[in-house]
Design a protein that fits this description.
Layout: H1 2-20, H2 44-60, H3 74-84, H4 87-93, E1 101-102, E2 113-117, H5 134-138, H6 143-159, E3 164-166, H7 189-205, E4 209-215, E5 228-230, H8 233-240, H9 242-249, E6 255-258, E7 262-263, E8 266-267, H10 272-282, E9 288-290, H11 299-305, H12 319-327, H13 333-349, H14 367-380, E10 382-386, E11 400-404, H15 429-437, E12 442-445, H16 449-458, E13 461-467, H17 477-480, H18 499-509, E14 513-518, E15 534-537, H19 545-553, E16 587-589, H20 598-603, E17 621-623, E18 627-629, E19 632-633, E20 638-647, E21 653-663, E22 674-683, E23 688-696, E24 702-704, E25 709-711, E26 715-724, E27 727-736
Parallel strand pairs: 2-3, 3-4, 4-6, 5-7, 5-16, 6-9, 11-12, 11-13, 13-14, 14-15, 19-27
Antiparallel strand pairs: 1-2, 7-8, 10-15, 17-20, 18-20, 20-23, 21-22, 21-26, 24-25, 26-27
Bound molecules: beta-D-glucopyranose.
Length: 741
């Protein structure tokens, strides 16, 4: 009875809410504006009236249908509901409604299911907590932190009645120019996979479904509806798909969102190879595959290609297109049933028919979640450079600090587009420094370049805050070109106009100049990097940006983030450089193959500015001998790699210990090293801990294009333990041998 009442009530409430929703922009390109994706808050009076109506309705119905009975097995409930739906109803169910909902079926009393964008916060319902963006979170290399931020995101969703969060996003960082790198999880598929799984588990632990996106190869924003990512089979399987696979198989993600672009000539929303053959058949994905917003191009092809849910509305998979196709045999009715079944199975199993999703006991501005945002921000920031111990600052020795540059205030905490998240409070670097510096340090703020130089001259220390920001494009498109990062557009390699000159001018008058960068990836360093002693990569670390940066500047927090992507010296060093914007030709050839990021820089012997895995600390870590036991194992066996790591400095710190592997001989081209393990460890001064990694043959497999499957070559593997990909501290060897051979 409870469930029947709830379902009837929920259906009526959701339907009423939907009626009051203000529809979002109608085209995908306007969708890139930060606010246009939002739906407005339901009209409370209407909702209250419909609750009363729903209660009255519920009382007149004697026994609830089986599909609304939570004590029944999920599949039985799905079967019963499916049997009650007409074919047109089933087709309608495959298209979203009101911007961000799976539709209610009023006739059958099933509720609408509400979605909200991420990944930096549950952003569709007004202000909320903003967490470190994907690449910032990945820079923590802290799986527990990913889980903690996931739980916080899930709680925010519950506080807003959100059933499905449209996050996380795991497209590989292939070029620094991609406008969405800040949402994604870096250049390494193993790292991204290891971080995304606990993030998803955290979100889903709060009975909120996660959506991994954008499947697949959405590695640039330029002309994103029309370009085809041309990727060879091995590269696809080794670089661009594994993080999605980890999301599915380790994270048990409930939903997958397809990408705007084409892969090898076929749009992702109708890509049979990606959706049917790989995601569903090979990886065993049982959940919902939804399109990205307005990214379907052919309804029948989408239906046959494996898409289950078209968002935000049925433009292609609708009655007009699908009914004739069923009649003339181009589309099977069982294909429609499978899609409806997937949607129903997923939402019923999540309990969405059985309980209200809104939890009023969780505050909208949740102090616990703010603590998670701060903890994540502290771990995410990377100390790129620190010559002559320019950092940390000694608040007893300095009397004044000039806080300069466009990103000093107001807070730049978030990227733009559908990830942009409004907060209740965000602390700028200026405010953070003012709070953290203490009363004896005078904080000076100059807004224009001339004033900045004047202040820098007077101050003991100058902090120059530069980088991109979240400002939307659209109407202001031209003015904002090159200043913002967000979906729908890429950004230049160079820092926004005037910033390099500002850094140079400030550094010329103040040798103690610290640069803080907000960006989703590497920038141009030429002409300024060698002029300053210290640089912090702050990404978009969420609403506590200013506090986390200030605490690191003053040494209250020891920096511990490490780069999840290689920062090259020059744009031309990146292998995508000649192919990135091929005007006229809609194909983007992934000519570098598997040699993405450090794999390629190592293989081609190109010196990066800051290598993958790099990040400095205020303390020193020393590494002991690398032990491998046993040293020889059968191909399916596993060995333990151990190493002692100690803190030999004066302050506590966290180190990220990285394990790379290289087959000594291989029948296929292999990068000089590939990340296969990592652990973050906290060490007090003088403390030592032993880190253990497990290595198994199947983790070291490569993709064999002859068998179209992963294959493992027995033989000798070199094991490299490092503090970064280019700061290798110890080596070991492991033999995989077929017994008796
Ligand atoms: C973005 C998605 C987002 C969706 C809904 C699209 O433009 O690419 O990441 O989830 O809009 O806002």
């Amino acid at each position: 009875m409870i469930s029947k009442c709830f379902a009837a009530r929920a259906a009526a409430v959701f339907a009423a809410c939907a009626a009051t929703l203000h529809l979002a922009a109608q085209t995908a390109e306007t969708n890139v504006l930060a606010e246009t994706n939002l739906v407005t808050t339901p009209n409370v009076t209407t909702a209250t009236n419909s609750i009363a109506a729903a209660d009255a309705m519920a009382e007149t119905n004697a026994s609830p249908p089986l599909y609304l009975d939570p004590s029944q097995p999920v599949e039985k409930r799905v079967d019963e509901l499916l049997a009650k739906m007409t074919l047109p109803e089933k087709i309608d169910y495959l298209g979203g409604v009101n911007g961000f909902y799976i539709r209610a079926i009023d006739r059958l009393g099933t509720p609408a299911i509400k979605m909200s964008d991420g990944p930096m916060g549950s952003r569709n319902d007004g202000p909320t907590t903003c967490y470190p963006g994907g690449i910032a979170l990945t820079a923590t290399w802290d799986k527990a932190m990913a889980g903690r931020i996931g739980v916080a995101l899930g709680r925010d969703c519950r506080a807003r009645g959100v059933n499905i969060l449209l996050a996380p996003a795991v497209n590989i960082y292939r070029s620094p120019l991609c406008g969405r790198n800040f949402e994604y999880m870096g250049e390494d598929p193993f790292l991204a996979g290891q971080m995304v799984a606990p993030l998803i588990q955290g979100i889903q632990s709060q009975e909120v479904l996660a959506t991994v996106k954008h499947f697949a190869c959405n590695n640039q924003e330029w002309d994103r509806h029309n370009i085809s990512s041309e990727v060879d089979e091995r590269t696809l399987q080794e670089i661009y798909l594994p993080a999605f696979k980890a999301a599915v198989q380790q994270g048990k993600v409930a939903c997958v969102m397809t990408a705007y672009n084409l892969v090898n000539g076929v749009h992702c929303s109708q890509n049979d190879f990606l959706i049917n053959q790989t995601l569903k058949a090979k990886w065993g994905f049982n959940g919902i595959v939804m399109s990205d917003w307005w990214s379907t191009y052919d309804g029948v092809a989408c239906a046959n290609g494996g898409l289950d849910l078209e968002m935000p509305e049925p433009n292609s998979m609708n009655r007009a297109n699908l009914l004739p196709a069923i009649q003339d045999g181009r589309l099977k009715g069982s294909v429609i049933d499978d899609k409806v079944r997937r949607i129903l199975r997923t939402v019923i199993a999540a309990g969405f028919f059985d309980r209200p999703q809104l939890r009023k006991d969780i505050p909208l501005d949740d102090p616990e979640n703010d603590r998670a945002a701060l903890a994540g921000a502290r771990e995410s920031i990377v100390l790129l450079k620190n010559k002559k111990h320019a950092l940390p600052l000694d608040r007893h020795a300095i009397r004044s600090i000039a806080v300069l540059g466009p990103n000093a205030d107001p807070a730049v905490y978030c990227g733009g587009g559908s990830a942009f998240t409004r907060t209740f409070h965000a602390i700028s670097i200026l405010d953070g420094i003012t709070q953290v510096a203490g009363e004896t340090v005078k904080v000076l703020r100059g807004t224009n370049a001339d004033a900045a130089v004047q202040l820098a001259r007077q101050a003991d220390v100058a902090v120059v805050c530069v980088g991109f920001d979240q400002r939307p494009r659209g109407e202001e498109q031209e003015r904002n070109r090159g200043l913002a990062e967000g979906e729908g557009h890429d950004r230049p390699f160079e820092l926004p106009a005037g910033q390099t000159d500002l850094i140079r001018a400030v550094a010329a008058v103040n040798p103690h100049t610290i640069v803080v960068i907000n960006s989703g990836g590497g920038v141009a360093w030429a002409g300024w990097l060698d002029k300053v002693p210290a640089v912090l990569q702050a990404w978009y670390p969420g609403q506590e940006v200013g506090r986390a940066v200030a605490e690191i500047l003053f040494g209250d927090v020891n920096p511990s983030g490490k780069l999840p992507a290689t920062f090259e010296k020059r744009a031309e060093d990146n292998p995508t450089f000649p192919y990135y914007h091929l005007n006229g030709n809609k194909q983007t050839p992934y000519t570098e193959g598997i040699f993405v990021g450090y794999r390629g820089y190592d293989a081609r012997k190109v010196e990066p500015q800051f290598c993958f895995g790099h990040g400095l600390s205020y303390t020193e870590f020393n590494y002991g001998k690398v032990e491998v036991a046993p040293k020889m194992i059968p191909p399916l066996g596993q060995a333990t790699v151990s190493v002692e790591v100690g803190n030999s400095g004066k302050v506590p710190g966290d180190e990220v210990v990285q394990l790379y592997v290289h087959p000594v001989k291989s029948s296929v081209p292999q990068p000089p090293k590939v990340l296969r393990g990592f652990e973050r460890v906290s060490l007090k001064p003088g403390e030592t801990k032993t880190i253990h990694f497990t290595l198994a043959g199947d983790q070291l497999a490569y993709y064999d294009v002859k068998t179209h499957d992963f294959a493992f070559e027995p033989g000798t593997y070199e094991i490299l333990i490092g503090s970064s990909s280019r700061d290798i501290r110890g080596k070991g060897r492991l033999e995989f041998k077929v017994p008796g051979m």
